[in-house]
Design goal:
This protein is α/β, with parallel strands linked by helices. It is 38% helix and 16% strand. The chain is built from 5 helices and 4 strands, in the order E-H-E-H-E-E-H-H-H. Strands 1-2-4-3 form a 4-stranded mixed β-sheet, sandwiched between helices. The protein is globular, with a radius of gyration of 15 Å.
């Protein structure tokens, strides 16, 4: 996993679509491609629609479940410049400002956390609403890998709020999933 520790938690009752090692490799490959600082840690939580709906309402102000949410802990400027970098103001969830903090010597900084609704990944894949365009029919395991990759890119300061950002982010996702 290079210099990254990927902590994976699977909530009770969530189906195991892929082994944890495959998910950790997907996260690590994405961190490498995004130029994430190393050594560092990142969290991946595999959950369901109910939890994602709660988090979506609390942190994004939107009703209903979403497929993936990311909670970055480092400012986007901690990552290399790229065309997919958010054009919005630097900030954390809900636009909060990032505040730097000191770590003890040798401590591994935490990059953030990603939470994925495995239930949503399965539903989107089965309904042919998968992929970056929402019209791809593929296996639920492929959809889960996409969501994990997508969420990891968000932790690393990538976004898709405008067409240039979106094109860059989607191109990198395609490359990582190939």
């Amino acid at each position: 996993m290079g210099g990254w520790r990927v902590d994976i938690e699977r909530r009770d009752g969530v189906p195991r679509l892929l082994p944890a090692t495959a998910l950790a490799r997907a996260v690590a490959a994405t961190l490498e491609a995004a130029g994430a600082p190393t050594p560092a840690s990142i969290g991946l939580i595999l959950s369901d629609d109910a939890e994602l709906a709660e988090l979506n309402a609390a942190h994004m102000g939107k009703d209903g479940p979403t497929d993936v949410l990311s909670f970055p802990l480092l400012a986007p400027d901690e990552y290399p410049d790229h065309a997919g970098k958010s054009s919005g103001a630097a900030g954390g969830p809900a636009g909060e400002a990032f505040e730097g903090f000191a770590l003890p010597p040798g401590a591994r900084p935490h990059l953030g956390d990603i939470i994925v609704s495995v239930e949503r990944a399965v539903d989107q894949a089965e309904a042919g609403r998968g992929g970056q365009t929402g019209d791809l029919r593929w296996d639920a395991r492929d959809e889960l890998r996409l969501l994990v990759t997508h969420g990891t890119l968000h932790v690393c300061g990538w976004d898709h709020a405008d067409p240039v950002e979106e094109a860059a982010m989607r191109a990198l996702e395609r490359r990582l999933l190939a």
